[in-house]
Amino acid sequence: MTDAAPTLKLEPDERRAIPVAAWVSVIVVLLAMALGAFQLYTAGYRPLNLFYQRGFHLLVIMVIAFLAFPIGRRKRGALGWAIDLPFIAGAIYSTGYLLVNLDAVISRSGFFIQQDIIAGIILVVVLLEAARRVIGVTITVLAVLFVLYGMAGPRGALPWLGEFLPGILAHRGYGFDRIIGHLYLGQEGIFGLPLGVAATVVFTFVLFGAFLETTGAGRFFIDLAYAVAGRQRGGPAKAAVVASGFMGSISGSAIANVVTSGAFTIPLMKKLGYTREEAGGVEAAASTGGQIMPPIMGAGAFLMAEYTGLPYAEIVRLSILPAFLYFATVYLFVDIIAAKRGMRGLSSAELPKLRQVFADGWYYLVPLGILIWFLLQSVSPNRVGFISIISIVAVSLVRWGIRRFILGIDDGGRQGIWPSLRLGLNNVLMAFVNGARNAVPVSIACAIAGVVVGMITLTGLGLKFSALMMAFSGGNLLLALFLLILASLVLGLGLPVTAAYIVLAVLAAPLLQSEFGIPILIAHLVIFWYSQDSNVTPPVALAAFAGAAIANGDPMRTGVQAWKFAKGLYLIPLFMIYNPEIIVGGDPWYVAWTVLTAMLALFAFAAALEGYMFTHMLWPNRLLAVAGLVLIFYPAFVVEVAGFGIMLGVLAINWTRRKRQLRRAAAA
C-alpha cells in the first residue's frame, strides 16, 4: 500500500464508474471518515435511539450517493449541479428534520402536521432517485408500484386504480398522508428493520472487511488458497473456490469477490484449459457462495437474526454445514471437468509456499478468530464488529513494531517512524473510504426495501401473497418452493440480494412456517439462498457478467455456466426442507446419515450433469443417478436408503468401468 491520497471509486451496482471532480472526492472522503467515526462510536461506546442512528446514517449515505453518482453518465457540469444540489439539500433537510424534531414528532403520536408530511414526501422522492442512481431503475419502479398499490382502493388517494386489482389483491386503500406518515415516521417504513440492520451491524462488518482488505488480507487469502489447492488437477479453478470461501469472510458482495479474486484465478484457469465461459462461471459461482459463508454472510445473517429472533452466533453455527456442501458442489464440478480433460495442477515453482504464506500473513487470522470467539460469547454483533476493527488495527501495529524495531525490517524502504505512521494513517483512511463505498448500495437497498415492506405491512399484502401461493400450489410444498424460486428470480432481476431477501422474508416466510410447518430458521435460510440466484442466473447474472468481463467471454454463456456450477443454491435448500435434521439436529446417527446422503447426492448430481465420474457415464447410468437423487428427497427413510443405494451403485459401476479401461490400456 502506498501513501498516495485516497481516491474515490464508487460504482452503482458495481457496474459502471462515473468520474467526479477532485474536490468532490475530498468531500466524500471527509463524509466517509465522519460516517466511519460515528459508526465506531455508536458500536463501541454509546448506542443511540434507533431514529437517530438510522437517520444520521441514511443522511450521510444519501449525500455520498448524490455526490458520487451524477445525474448523467459524464462528469457533472453546471446543469448537473443544478439538478443534483436540490437532491442533496432534500436529503439533508428530510433526514435532518426528523433528527431535530424527533421528540415533537413522537409526542404527536400519529397526528402528524403538514410539515411532517412535506419532509416525508421529500425523503421518499430523494430516496427513489438515490436508488435509481446507485442500484438501477428497476428497484425504483418497483417501489413506486407498491406505493401506487397502497393508494388503490375505495378509500385511497387513487380509488379508480383499485378497480383494476384482482379480488384477492383488493384492499380499502389509503390516503396520501397516511402512506407518507407510515413510510417516513413509522417503524415499518424507511427507518424500519432493514435500514436498522444496515446502519449498525452491516456497516460495522463492512468496515471491518475494508480494514482487512486495506491491510492486505485479500492477497493473503488468495495466496493461501493457491498454496492449498494449486497442485491438484484444475488447481487454479479449485483455488478460486477456496479463495472465494475465504473472501466471503471479508466481503459483502459477490461481484466484489469476482473482481478481487477473479483477476488472479480466471487467467490461470484459461491457461490451464478451461474455456473463457467456464473460468468466469466458476469464479461467479464460487464468489456467490461467499455470501452464504459464515461468519459474515453478507448482510443475511444479521437480518435473519432480527427476523427470526435467534442469536446471530446460532445462525452462523447452523449455516456452516450447508455452506460447506455448496462449496463442495462447485469443487466437484471443477474437479470433474479437470479429470474429463486430463488437466493437471500448477507446478510447485508456480505456487506460493504454504509455510511462507503463513509466515507473512498469519496475523490476518487473529481478527477473524477474535470475531468468532466474541460471537460465541453472545456479545452483540455490532459490538463484536467494533472489537474486530480495533483488533486488526492493534495486530497491524504490533506486527509493524516487531518488524521495525526487533527484526529491523523497514517496509517500503522508508526511513524513520513518522513516514511509516503516515502510511498507516493513510491505510486507515482508505479503509473508511472503502467501507463507505461498499456500504452505499447496501444501505440504499435496505432503505428502499423499507418502502416496499412498509406498503406490504400497511395493505396486508403479505397475507394475500401467502393465499396466492397456497392457491397456485394447491398445498403442495414442492410446487410452493418452485413458485418461491421463480419469485426470487424475478425480484433478483432488479433488486440486490439483500433487498430481494427482505421482500421475500416478509412475503413468503410466514407461509412456509405456518402452512407447511417448516422451522423458522430453515424458512429464512431457504429464502436467503434462493435470493442469491440472480447473481448466477441469466438473463441478469451480475456476478457472472463480471466474470465474463475479466475472462473476455460471452456474458450469457458465462451466465449459463455459472448457473450450472451454482446448482447447489437450489438443491441444498431442498435438502434443508426435506431433511431438517441437517440444520436443527436430531439423533446423532440420523444426522450423520443425512450428511452422508447429502454429500453423495451432490456428488452424483454433479457427475450426472457433467456425464463423467472416474470415466464417461452412459446415459442410462446418468438417468439412474438422477432417479436416486429424487428418491433421496422423499421424506421416508426406506425410500432414502433406496435412493442412496442407486446412486452408490451407479458410481460403483463407473468405478469398475474405469478400472477395466486402465487394465486394457496397460495390456495394450
Describe the structure.
- Helices cover 73% and strands 1% of the residues.
- It is mainly α.
- Among the domains are: 12-187, no CATH class; 586-668.
- Strands 1-2 form a two-stranded antiparallel ribbon.
- β1 and β2 form a beta hairpin.
- The radius of gyration is 26 Å and the shape is globular.
- It starts with 21 loop residues before the first helix and ends with a helix.
- The model is unreliable at 1-17 (pLDDT under 50).
Coarse shape: globular
Q: What does the main sheet amount to?
A: 2 strands, antiparallel
Based on CA atoms alone, the radius of gyration comes out at: 26 Å
Please bin the fraction of helical residues. Answer: over 70%
**Cα distance spanning the termini:** 58 Å
Integer average pLDDT: 82
Q: How many runs of DSSP E, i.e. beta strands?
A: 2
Strand order of the largest sheet: 1-2
Secondary-structure-derived class: mainly alpha
Contiguous helical run count? 30
Q: Point out poorly predicted stretches.
A: 1-17
Strand percentage: under 5%
